[in-house]
C-alpha cells in the first residue's frame, strides 16, 4: 500500500452530512448526531477536518483543461462547449469552477473559525492553519484568474449574508499572496515533517512561484518575475531532484519521487480508483474511450533530436514523424503509424485519434481501475518557472540553458526501444536572444508539461488563445472546429444563478 497520508479522511460539509473515511473503513456521521462543539475535541478530529480540504486538490480530471488549448482534444461536453465558442453563463465548466472553489473556501473558513476550540499547541495549530490557508488562497486565485473581480470570503456566511461585494482583481491577488506568505510562515517550523501528499512549505512556494510567473507575465512586471524566480531557486536547492525516467514519473514507479513537490494521492483501495487509463488509451487497451487525445499541433511542437524546429530541421521526415525527434514525443504519444507492444499491452490506433502514452500504466489489468497519483507540482515545472522568469528579466544565460538541457537529457534516459539511453545533444547558447530563447522556453513548457492540465494558464497569459483556438483540432483526421472570441473569452462569465443570488455582482463584458 502506498506510503502517504496514513489516515486520510474526506469530509463533506454540505446538506447536513459529515463523511469521514480511513484506509480501512468508511463511516458516515449525520451532522445531527455530531455537534460542532463535540467534534473539536482532539487533534485527531482537527486532522480529519483538515484532510477534507485535500479532496479539492487537482486530480486526473485536471487534464481536461489542456483541451482548452491547441494541444488536446476532448470528447467531454464541458470542455467542448468552451473550445467551440459556446461559453456562456450557464456553461457547466463555468458553474463547476465557481461552485467548487467557493465550496473549498467555505470549508476552509469553517475550519479556521472552529479549530481554536481543540486546544492545540501554538505550533500544531499553525501547521494545520497553514495547510488550510493554502487551499483557501488557491481557490480565490483560480476564481480571480478566470472571472476577474470576485468576492473575497474569509468567514462563514449565513444564508442572508450571501450578497457580497466583489473585490477588484488586484486586491484579490494581494490577498492571495499575503495568505500564501502567512501559510509559508505557519508551515516552516522545523518539527513539521508531514507524510507524502500533504501541503508543505515547498508546495506553498511552488504555488506562489507559479502565480507570480503568471501575473508577472500578464502585467509585464519584472519585480513579480524576479520573486517567482527567487522562490523557484529556493525550491531547486531544497533537496528535490529530477526523476531518472520521464516515462516512469507518470506511472506507479514514480510515486514518491524526489521530483514531486505535491501529488494528489489516489489510494490503492477498492472504490478509490479512477479511469485515467480508459480516458487516454486507444480502444485496444481495456476498450478505452480516448476521451482526451493529443492533437497534431502537439506532435508538431516536439523538435528534432538536436532541438531544432521540425519546420527547418534537415532530420525531420513527415513520413516517419517519430524518428529523430525529442525522445519525449515517443514517451508522451503513441506512434500512430505502427502497432505498439507496450510491455505486454497492445496499443492499436483506431484511425481517428492520436493516443497518449504518458500516464498509461501497461500493468493495469482491469477497466477503470487506475490508482496513479496525480502530480500537482514538480521540480520540472519549477525549473521552467525559473528559466522563463529570469529570461524575461535578464535574457538568456548558460545557467538557464543548462536547466532546459537537463530536462531534454532526462527525456532520453531509458527512452530507446531496448531501454537504453538516447543521447540528446544540448542546445547551444551562441546566437540566442531573449526572443529566440523565449520561444524555446515556451515550447519546452508545452512538451514537458503536456497532459498535466496547466498549459491553459500558459496560453492564456501568453495571449495565444485567440491565435491557436481559432484553428481546427486535428488528430489523424479533423476532429473539431474551434472558436475563441477575444478579448471576451479571456475572462469567463459569472454564472447566471450567482447573478440572481447576488445582485451586487455585474456580468463580465460581452456576456
Q: How many strands appear in the DSSP assignment?
A: 10
Give the helix level as a range of percent: 40-55%
Low-confidence stretches: 3-35
Report Rg.
23 Å
**H/E series, N to C?**
EEHHEHHHHHHHEHEHHEEEHHHHHEEH
Q: Identify the strand order in the major beta sheet.
A: 1-2
Q: Average pLDDT across residues?
A: 90
CATH class of the largest domain: Mainly Alpha
| Proportion of residues in extended strands | 5-15%
- Specify the CATH architecture of the largest domain: Alpha Horseshoe
Which class do the helix and strand fractions yield? mainly alpha
Counted up, domains total 3
Q: Count of helical segments?
A: 18
Distance between the termini: 49 Å
CATH T-level fold name of the largest domain: Serine Threonine Protein Phosphatase 5, Tetratricopeptide repeat
- What is the molecular shape? globular
| Largest beta-sheet characterization | 2 strands, antiparallel
Protein name: RagB/SusD family nutrient uptake outer membrane protein
Family: Belongs to the SusD family.
Keywords: Cell outer membrane, Membrane, Signal
Subcellular location: Cell outer membrane
Describe this protein's structure.
The chain folds into 3 domains: 63-193 and 463-511, Serine Threonine Protein Phosphatase 5, Tetratricopeptide repeat (Alpha Horseshoe), CATH 1.25.40; 205-265 and 373-462, Serine Threonine Protein Phosphatase 5, Tetratricopeptide repeat (Alpha Horseshoe); 274-369, no CATH class. The chain is built from 18 helices and 10 strands. The protein has helices at residues 36-39, 43-52, 77-83, 92-114, 122-147, 169-186, 201-219, 222-236, 246-249, 276-280, 296-301, 328-332, 379-394, 398-412, 434-448, 455-461, 465-468, 496-501, and strands spanning 17-21, 26-30, 72-74, 260-264, 292-294, 340-342, 345-347, 374-378, 473-474, 478-480. Strands 1-2 form a two-stranded antiparallel ribbon. The longest helix has 26 residues, at 122-147. The protein is globular and about 65 Å long. Keywords: Cell outer membrane, Membrane, Signal. InterPro entries: SusD-like_N, SusD_RagB_dom, TPR-like_helical_dom_sf. Residues 91-213 form the SusD-like N-terminal domain.
Amino acid at each position: 500500500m502506498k506510503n502517504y497520508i496514513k489516515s486520510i479522511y474526506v469530509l463533506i460539509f454540505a446538506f447536513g452530512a459529515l463523511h469521514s473515511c480511513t484506509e480501512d473503513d468508511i463511516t458516515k456521521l449525520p451532522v445531527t448526531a455530531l455537534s460542532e462543539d463535540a467534534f473539536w475535541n482532539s487533534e485527531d478530529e482537527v486532522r480529519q477536518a483538515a484532510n477534507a480540504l485535500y479532496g479539492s486538490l487537482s486530480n486526473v480530471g485536471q487534464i481536461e483543461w489542456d483541451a482548452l488549448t491547441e494541444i488536446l482534444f476532448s470528447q467531454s461536453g464541458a470542455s467542448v462547449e468552451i473550445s467551440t465558442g459556446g461559453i456562456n453563463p450557464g456553461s457547466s465548466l463555468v458553474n463547476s469552477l465557481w461552485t467548487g472553489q467557493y465550496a473549498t473556501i467555505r470549508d476552509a473558513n469553517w475550519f479556521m473559525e472552529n479549530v481554536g476550540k481543540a486546544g492545540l499547541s501554538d505550533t500544531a495549530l499553525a501547521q494545520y492553519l497553514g495547510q488550510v490557508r493554502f487551499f483557501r488562497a488557491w481557490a480565490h486565485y483560480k476564481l480571480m484568474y478566470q472571472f476577474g473581480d470576485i468576492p473575497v470570503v474569509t468567514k462563514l456566511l449565513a444564508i442572508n449574508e450571501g450578497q457580497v461585494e466583489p473585490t477588484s482583481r488586484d486586491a484579490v491577488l494581494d490577498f492571495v499572496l499575503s495568505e500564501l506568505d502567512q501559510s509559508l510562515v505557519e508551515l516552516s517550523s522545523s518539527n513539521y515533517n508531514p507524510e507524502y501528499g500533504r501541503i508543505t512549505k515547498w508546495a506553498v512556494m511552488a504555488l506562489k512561484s507559479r502565480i507570480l510567473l503568471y501575473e508577472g507575465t500578464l502585467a509585464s512586471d519584472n519585480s513579480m518575475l524576479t520573486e517567482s524566480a527567487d522562490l523557484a531557486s529556493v525550491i531547486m536547492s531544497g533537496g528535490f531532484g529530477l526523476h531518472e525516467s520521464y516515462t516512469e514519473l507518470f506511472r506507479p514507479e514514480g510515486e514518491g519521487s524526489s521530483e514531486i513537490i505535491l501529488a494528489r494521492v489516489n489510494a490503492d483501495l477498492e472504490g478509490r480508483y479512477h479511469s485515467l487509463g480508459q480516458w487516454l488509451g486507444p480502444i485496444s487497451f481495456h476498450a478505452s474511450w480516448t476521451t482526451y487525445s493529443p492533437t497534431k499541433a502537439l506532435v508538431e511542437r516536439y523538435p528534432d533530436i538536436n532541438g531544432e524546429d521540425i519546420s527547418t530541421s534537415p532530420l525531420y521526415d513527415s513520413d516517419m514523424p517519430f524518428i529523430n525527434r525529442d525522445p519525449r514525443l515517443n514517451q508522451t504519444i503513441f506512434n500512430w503509424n505502427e502497432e505498439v507492444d507496450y510491455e505486454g499491452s497492445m496499443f492499436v490506433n483506431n484511425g481517428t485519434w492520436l493516443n497518449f502514452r504518458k500516464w498509461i500504466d501497461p500493468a493495469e489489468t482491469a477497466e477503470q481501475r487506475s490508482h496513479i497519483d496525480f502530480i500537482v507540482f514538480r521540480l520540472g515545472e519549477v525549473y521552467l518557472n525559473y528559466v522563463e522568469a529570469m529570461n524575461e528579466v535578464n535574457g538568456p544565460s548558460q545557467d538557464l540553458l543548462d536547466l532546459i538541457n537537463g530536462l531534454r537529457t532526462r527525456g532520453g534516459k531509458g527512452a530507446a526501444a531496448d531501454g537504453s539511453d538516447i543521447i540528446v545533444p544540448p542546445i547551444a547558447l551562441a546566437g540566442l536572444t531573449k526572443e529566440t530563447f523565449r520561444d524555446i522556453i515556451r515550447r519546452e513548457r508545452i512538451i514537458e508539461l503536456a497532459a498535466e492540465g496547466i498549459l491553459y494558464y500558459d496560453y492564456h497569459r501568453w495571449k495565444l488563445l485567440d491565435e491557436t483556438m481559432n484553428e481546427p483540432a486535428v488528430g489523424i483526421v479533423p476532429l473539431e472546429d474551434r472558436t475563441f472570441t477575444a478579448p471576451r473569452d479571456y475572462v469567463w462569465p459569472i454564472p447566471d444563478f450567482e447573478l440572481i443570488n447576488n445582485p451586487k455582482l455585474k456580468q463580465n463584458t460581452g456576456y
